[in-house]
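Sequence only, no structure available. Ideas?
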Amino acid sequence: MTDPRPTGRGRMKLAARCRVATEAPAFGMVVFCAILLNAALMGVETYSGLAADHQRLLRTAEQCCLALFSVEMLLRAGAFADRPKAFFRDPWNLFDLVVVASAFVPFVRENTTLLRLLRLARVLRTARFLPHLRILLIAVGRSLPGTASFLFVGGLVLYVYAMVGWVCFAESDPGHYGSVGRAMLTLFLLTTLDGLTDAVRAGLEISRLSIVYYASYALLASFVLVNVLIGVVLNSLDEAREMEDAADRERKRPGPPPAAGGPDADVRDRIATARRALDELEASLPAPDGRPSRRLETSPSGS
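Reply:
I predicted one. C-alpha cells follow.
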C-alpha cells in the first residue's frame, strides 16, 4: 500500500526517476560495454609484461568500472524505492548486488585470487542485457534436477556394461577392461562413438558376440540416453521462456492504484457522488406502466 505522506510520494518520485534511467537503452548499453571492458582488462592482466608496464592504467580502469557498477546498483535499488521487497525477489538483482558489493568487503578485497574470480563473475552479468542468454542460463539451472537423474541412470548403465566388459574382455584386453574403473573409462570415451570402430574390431577377434555388446551399448548410451538429456534441456528451455515472458508481463504491469486519501481521492468522491445522483434520478422516473418506480436503495459508496 502506498504511503500517502510526503515521504511516500518522495519515494515514488525517486523510484520513477530511477526507473526512467535504468530502462533507458543508453544506460543498458553503457553498463554492457563496461562489463565487456572489465572482461578485457582481466585478459590483459594475464600478460605479466604488459600488466607491469601499464599497472597504474589498468588499476584506474578497474576502479572506473567498479564505480560505474556501483552507480548502476544504486540506480537499480532506487528504482525499487517504493517497493523495496520486490528488489530482493529478483534473483538477478541479488546476483548483481553480491558481485558488485563483494569488491568492498575487506577480506575479499585483499584476496587477489578470490577478487579475480568475483571479477570474472561480472561477465555473467551480460545475461541481464541479452534476453536469449538469460533464457539459456535459466534453462540450464532448471534442467539440473533432471540432469542429476540422467547422470544416475547413465552411471548405472555404464557400471553394468563395465562389469560385463570386465567379465568378457579382462583377460584378452587388460589395458581397456583390466578393472571396472578402466572398463568404465573405456565405455565413457565410447559414448561419443569416437574409437568405436577399433573397439568393435578388437572385440571381434575375441568373440563374434562382442558385436551385440558394443551395438547395444552404442544404441542405449549414445542415442537413447543422449536424446533423453536433450529432451530434459528442451523442456527446461520452454519453461524458462514462459518464466521470462511472465516476468516481462509483471514488469510492464502498472503499479497499484492510489490509496484512499491520496491526491486522486477527491476525484473518486466526485465520481461516486455523481453516480448516486444518477441513480436517484433514474429511480424518480416513471415506470413504463405509468406508475412511479420504486426508489432505489444506494449504498454509501454508490455501488
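The CA atoms of residues 190 and 197 lie 10 Å apart.
Hope that gets you unstuck.
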